[in-house]
Amino acid sequence: MNPIQYTIVPKNPAAHLFEVTLTVAAPDPAGQRFMLPVWIPGSYMIREFARNIVTLQAFNAAGRKIAIEKVDKHAWQAAPHDGPITLRYEVYGWDMSVRAAHLDDTVGFFNGTSVFLAVEGQADAPCVVDIQAPQGAAYRNWRVATALPEARGTMRYSFGAYQAQNYDELIDHPVTLGEFALGSFSAHGVKHEIVISGRVVGLDMNRLAVDLKRVCEAQIALFEPRTKKAPVDRYVFMTVAVSDGYGGLEHRASTALICNRGDLPVVGRAEMTDGYRTYLGLCSHEYFHTWNVKRIKPAAFAPYDLSQENYTSLLWLFEGFTSYYDDLMLVRSGLISPSDYFSLVGKTIGGVLRSSGRLKQTVAESSFDAWVKYYRADENSPNAIVSYYQKGSLVALAFDLSIRAQTGNRKSLDDVMRLLWQRYGRDFYNGKLRGIEESDVEALFAEATGADLRKLFREGVHGTRDLPLDALFEPFGVALAPEPATNGTAGKPSLGARVRGGADCVLAVVHDGSAAQKAGLSAGDVLVAIDGLRVTGSNLDALLARYLPGAKVEVHAFRRDELRRTEVKLDAPEVTRYTLTASDGRGPGKQWRERWLKG
Ligand SMILES: [Zn+2]
């Protein structure tokens, strides 16, 4: 099969325009169809990337125009003709996230799903992409970072030709263009690269390399304890550092990340800041996906259908379990202490138990509806949905503790992950291309561990009953207790609403059944006074700390431009996090706990 030839040029960084050409040697003589994905794998929302295609024209081999028309929101149809066809189109890129494409005079970034049209009927054809440098002296130090293999003659990190075996591989390798800091390390013999773009002062790349190596080696050893064989030949961590941003997207041999520049480690400062721990947790999360969702996949993603939603009820397994392991691997690799780990778990438990959506939606339903609910969260989401990330990670924790308790700590969730890997993941890109059916999950867990997990599946995955975490922690010598919100105002009563900070006190979320809701307050209302004293986004806690739970206060608030007055009977202090306390008591508790946290 002739390769499909793409070129991409950061043509006009000031206008944020890439120019892409695409040549098909043997198009459908009856009229070739082309389409752009409507979503990017890993981010379960219809994004309609084709809306950023500004102009598009088609030409024959002689350079004469061929008629081409739009047939729906993301597809084009060329008129019948003989011989090769070339498309030339412009793509607008002004999305500083990891999900789309961005171009300005400081950095370029793109996912193939935003810029490379698929050639209908030729998804299996090899692809060659010529990545060209922008014109002008200002760009002479720009380089290319991607895990896409270089074609012959192209040096690593340079502009030139890159290649992919098929369209699926082409779009699974994001590309960063620009000036960037570069680091590398070897994890169990495989080269891992670190690319940091954006302005970062005093970056401690050595520390980053040492720390990430530990996380990566721990994960490789988890899936392949005997051979320590990594799932890739090469891996690239690609980060754009910005003033305020957080996110990551997994790919088969790389990840695209965005973080606060302040989260990255600084030369000469050895402390583990919350920001750096968060960043390492994000790297750990995306790296874990190299196995869990990029190779071990739900059947619905094997293969992906990029023209519409791909429904699966298993995101709790692919995102939730990955969220469980991301921080667990930090403690197992010694980057954070067990007490730091417990504090992260306590925060997650608080996050889940705080919202009544958990009583209305199961994690399986949340997975299925991710496209219209989790990814399109609004002010009512905490009352209506449960996060398959947060609760999914607690479901993973519950499975892990339950399996360990039932098997005397001889089996664990690690055994489930390994069996999933052996059966579905290891050979996914070696022609096996099979995902796990939803109906096979429960049997696989039982096969891997011998534990009876039916109740957890029934109540934790397919039910809305709260997980029995107290009981599950007990054999591990861990006690769970609610920790009321503090920040200097311990025991303060609550409105039962989440507030957006700032000059105005805007209610972002009003929890079901809360004092605020009973008093008729709604998300979007701007509180202006409590008992006649002015309230802002920053002094609400201090004002409420003057009252006891159950006290009645007069609240003035604007809804749109109408002033309202209401009386609020204040709720008990809100529990936003839980404390996990490890005891050194007798019995197997301490030993079991250490085994769990050491892997
Ligand atoms: Zn994820």
UniProtKB/TrEMBL annotation:
GO terms for biological process: proteolysis. Pfam families: PDZ_6 (PF17820), Peptidase_M61 (PF05299), Peptidase_M61_N (PF17899). Keywords: Hydrolase, Metalloprotease, Protease. InterPro entries: PDZ, PDZ_6, PDZ_sf, Peptidase_M4/M1_CTD_sf, Peptidase_M61, Peptidase_M61_catalytic, Peptidase_M61_N. The keyword Hydrolase applies. Transmembrane segments: none annotated. Coiled coil: none annotated. Residues 479-537 form the PDZ domain. GO terms for molecular function: metallopeptidase activity. The keyword Zinc-finger does not apply. This is Predicted metalloprotease, contains C-terminal PDZ domain.
